[in-house]
Design goal:
GO cellular component, one term: endoplasmic reticulum membrane
Function: Plays an important role in regulating the size of autophagosomes during the formation process.
Radius of gyration: 47 Å
CATH architecture of the largest domain: 3-Layer(aba) Sandwich
Main location: endoplasmic reticulum
Oligomer: single chain
CATH class of the largest domain: Alpha Beta
Number of helices: 28
Shape: flat
Strand content: 5-15%
Protein name: DnaJ homolog subfamily C member 16
Keywords: Autophagy, Membrane, Signal, Transmembrane, Transmembrane helix
Structural class: alpha/beta
Length: 766
């Protein structure tokens, strides 16, 4: 019984197919709309609007309003499409009848269920031919990166994203066909991308819905956000996305300044149309040649009369350095794009162009390795100054009258101060050549290999140029022979692009492109959340700034109050007006041991004075005086330790720094007056004692071995007792800290000896 579900499914398809065919039958569209067969599109549109308002289901209570409204819409769609209307007038068939006739290929596919999915309804255009139309124009991600993006620098591309089982995609197929028929003759390419097969490309271009149409201009992506139901709206969208001021508008009196701007190394083109707005074909052409030709749209009857252009004709005039007479022109009722491109491409360089970029150099001097077909490029080296204008003008006149074909010899000039690296690379080693106003003859063997020869004479107007030109002409004629060799050869780098934007211009352009691409990538559902996030950020920043402002006001108020208090207390004692940081001493004991030693932050130290109860009154004041200059140092802490409490810890600390494990015999009385600098993080300490001053020795990083005979006199501290001082020297309790200031200076200089330990011993609780 496995075939039962399949049979039920087939029956369901047949039933749906029959019901759908019954619903989509179209009668006589002229009778439905109430117009005659020769009615214009305006009359058909007017009749449709009137009937649509009358039979709209929301505006009438008639039960048959829905069916009547669908019938009116289908009739209008048929008559508004010129191809479908012509087919109906000639053969009396609609699209529905045509695709169900036996001669249609889908009738012979042998599968009646595929006919159901191949049905071309009035709204869905769901036919097999529509899908094949998209597939034929489909490109992959690799083709997009390697071919489409580079070509978009000169050719705009419309990219349509679709899917196989997308009903809206099939519904837009007629509009896509019209776009192809209208835009491709103008120079706009139309390609498609299968969104399911190329999902990464869809994510890269911010495609959120299917179908979707995007415009690619010079690598920048612009998303068309509206539904694809109007060809005119798409055309307007393409027009608005072209670069700003791609075509200048020429009013009366502007033509001279526009034509005299050829010093930017671009030919000038004037476009004349009887319309007020420039047509798309000229915008596409201006975009294609924008690096070589500057276009101006003439919006002046006086300028049209000046160049004798008929009022009802289109015309394009091309000018080089001679602004009084166009070097090429074309005037027609409707200029084809191919003819327009041919005329401009044949005249896209000045009479004497400048080698201003690598692209211009490659176009003027193409590579040719074969000697019989070699092409020479004759270049005059000048400076970007008015002093060389006369030299360039005379060289331009010679280039225009030279008896050579442009396919064999091209003349140009170059700025030495802007292309210094390129020109200097053509100066042979060991020779002294002044390149200014010299002529160099080039032959490009390949992209970087150049064979060249410097012309013997300078191009100087003070001397007889007739002899110079005759010699130059004979030199070029001789070098054109296949048997002649150019003297030198060199490998050169690419020319500097003189027309490139500066760093600020490039950054600004990228930021604007990013903002525009981000805006175009946002759908209507995403704009509101994006605005909400942006508004929240602005609100938080505003609140933060307001709170900081209030805090600043409060601080200023407090400072004013302190100033008033100080001014009131300064009547008798001025010494108390200056605020001084407080110097606090902490006792080192078991409760404070971790905070003062073990848990010190990196870079912090604790200065500890060792004393007892009897010496407290005599040692604290000099210790306070010695460390007072360092009170503002936030990396220091100051403390004292009673030897009675910390003798065990102190003894173990010294024991850890000894090289052997000999037991120390320490007299607590001799420890009084010792100052320790403890670095808790790095685990080392420095020591000061008046009796045994530290001797710095290279490589001494451990306490030396104490001598038993000297332990009572202070040798237990860890130093050798080989000092000049006698062990019998008696120190008074008040002089124990006499050298502490000097020791502190050396401590912060890093010249005192450091005694390293493996760990900090425990501090006993007493």
């Amino acid at each position: 019984m496995r075939w039962m579900p399949q049979l039920w499914l087939c029956q369901s398809y047949i039933l749906i197919y029959l019901l759908w065919g019954a619903l989509c039958e179209i009668g006589d569209p002229y009778k439905i709309l109430g117009v005659h067969r020769k009615a214009s599109q305006q009359e058909i549109r007017k009749a449709y609007k009137q009937l649509a308002k009358e039979w709209h289901p929301d505006k009438t209570t008639d039960q048959n309003a829905g069916e009547r409204f669908v019938e009116i819409s289908q009739a209008y769609e048929l008559l508004s499409d010129p191809d479908r209307r012509k087919r109906y007038d000639d053969k009396g068939i609609t699209e529905d009848d045509f695709y169900n006739r036996p001669e249609h290929p889908s009738f012979h596919n042998g599968n009646p269920f595929e006919d159901f999915f191949a049905y071309h309804g009035a709204h869905f255009n769901f036919q097999e031919n529509d899908i094949t139309f998209f597939h034929k124009l489909s490109v992959t991600t690799r083709q997009y990166d390697k071919v489409i993006v580079p070509k978009s620098e000169k050719i705009p591309h419309l990219i349509f994203f679709y899917d196989d089982w997308c009903f809206p995609c099939l519904q837009t197929a007629p509009y896509c066909r019209k776009l192809v028929d209208y835009l491709e003759p103008l120079g706009v390419n139309f390609v498609t991308v299968h969104s399911r097969r190329e999902p990464n490309l869809g994510r890269r271009l911010s495609i959120h819905t299917i179908p979707c149409l995007v415009l690619l201009l010079d690598g920048n992506v612009y998303v068309y956000k509206e539904t694809i139901t109007s060809v005119q709206k798409i055309i307007d969208f393409v027009r608005n996305k072209f670069p700003y001021k791609l075509v200048s508008k020429i009013k009366t009196g502007d033509e001279d300044s526009f034509l005299n701007g050829w010093e930017d190394n671009r030919v000038r083109a004037l476009i004349f149309e009887p319309r007020k707005n420039i047509r798309l074909r000229y915008l596409v052409t201006a975009y294609h040649f924008r690096h070589r030709v500057a276009f101006g749209f003439v919006d002046s009857a006086d300028v049209r009369d000046k160049y004798q252009v008929p009022q009802d004709m289109d015309a394009v005039l091309l000018f080089n350095e001679n602004t009084s007479l166009p070097m090429a022109s074309i005037t027609m009722k409707d200029i084809p794009t191919s003819t327009l491109h041919h005329i401009i491409s044949s005249n896209q360089y000045l009479a004497l162009p400048r080698l201003s970029s690598q692209g211009v150099f490659e176009s003027l001097c193409p590579c040719e390795w074969n000697k019989p077909r070699k092409k020479l490029c004759v270049v005059l080296v000048t400076e970007a100054s008015r002093n060389h204008d006369t030299h360039r003008q005379l060289f331009r006149m010679y280039a225009q009258n030279a008896p050579y074909s442009m396919e064999k010899v091209r003349f140009a000039y170059i700025y030495h101060d802007k292309q210094t690296e390129f020109v200097n690379s053509l100066i042979p080693e060991g020779e002294v050549i002044e390149p200014l106003l010299r002529i160099i003859i080039l032959w490009r063997r390949d992209t970087s290999h150049i064979k060249y020869k410097w012309f013997s004479s300078k191009w100087e107007i003070e001397k007889n140029l007739n002899d110079t030109t005759s010699l130059l002409e004979s030199t070029i004629s001789r070098l054109l022979r296949s048997s002649e060799q150019l003297t030198y050869e060199a490998f050169v780098k690419d020319l500097f692009d003189e027309h490139a934007k500066g760093i600020f211009g490039r950054v600004f352009t990228k930021v604007m492109n990013f903002v525009e691409a981000t805006y175009d990538g946002l759908s209507k559902e995403q704009i509101l959340p994006a605005v909400s996030v942006f508004g929240t950020i602005i609100f938080i920043l505003a609140i933060g700034y307001f709170m900081a402002y209030l805090v600043r006001l409060e601080e200023e108020n407090i400072q004013k109050q302190k100033a008033k208090a100080k001014s009131g207390n300064n009547n008798n004692d001025t010494s108390k007006s200056d605020y001084q940081p407080e110097l606090r001493f902490h006792e080192l004991r078991s409760e404070t041991y971790n905070a003062l030693v073990r848990l010190l932050k990196p870079g912090c130290r604790t200065i500890v004075l060792v004393l007892d109860m009897q010496s407290r009154q005599q040692l604290i004041p000099p210790f306070h005086k010695a460390v007072w200059p360092y009170r503002k140092n936030k990396t220091l802490m100051f403390s004292f330790m009673y030897i009675e409490r910390g003798l065990t810890w102190y003894k173990e600390l010294l024991q850890l720094s000894l090289p052997d494990e000999r037991e120390l015999n320490i007299n607590p009385r001799n420890c009084v007056g010792t100052v320790l600098s403890l670095n808790g993080h790095r685990k080392y300490f420095c020591m000061f004692h008046a009796k045994h001053m530290e001797k710095r020795r290279k490589g001494a990083n451990k306490l030396t071995k104490p001598e038993e005979k000297d332990c009572e006199s202070g040798a237990f501290i860890g130093f050798d007792s080989d000092s000049s001082e006698s062990d019998e020297d008696i120190l008074l309790q008040g002089t124990l800290l006499d050298g502490l200031e000097n020791w502190l200076d050396r401590l912060f200089e890093g010249t005192t000896q450091r005694y390293r330990i493996n760990y900090w011993p425990e501090f006993s609780i007493k």
